[in-house]
Write a structure and sequence with these properties.
Order of helices and strands: HH
Strand content: under 5%
Largest sheet: none
Family: Belongs to the unc-93 family.
Keywords: Membrane, Transmembrane, Transmembrane helix
Radius of gyration: 12 Å
InterPro entries: UNC-93_regulatory
GO biological process, one term: regulation of muscle contraction
Transmembrane segments: 5-22, 28-45
Shape: elongated
């Protein structure tokens, strides 16, 4: 149950970042961080 809540909070946080963030040309690393975080949260959901 705790892992599910952590994954839920992670997904909500990532969705908020994607909703509020305005991409800039110099923020290339942010794309990779978001993708890695999304993959981590998705892996938690897939293992349940």
């Amino acid at each position: 149950m705790t892992i599910m809540v952590a994954a839920l909070i992670c997904h909500i946080g990532l969705l908020m970042v994607l909703w509020l963030w305005t991409p800039v040309r110099d923020d290339v690393a942010v794309f990779y961080v978001i993708a890695a975080g999304w993959g981590l949260c998705n892996a938690v959901w897939e293992t349940l």
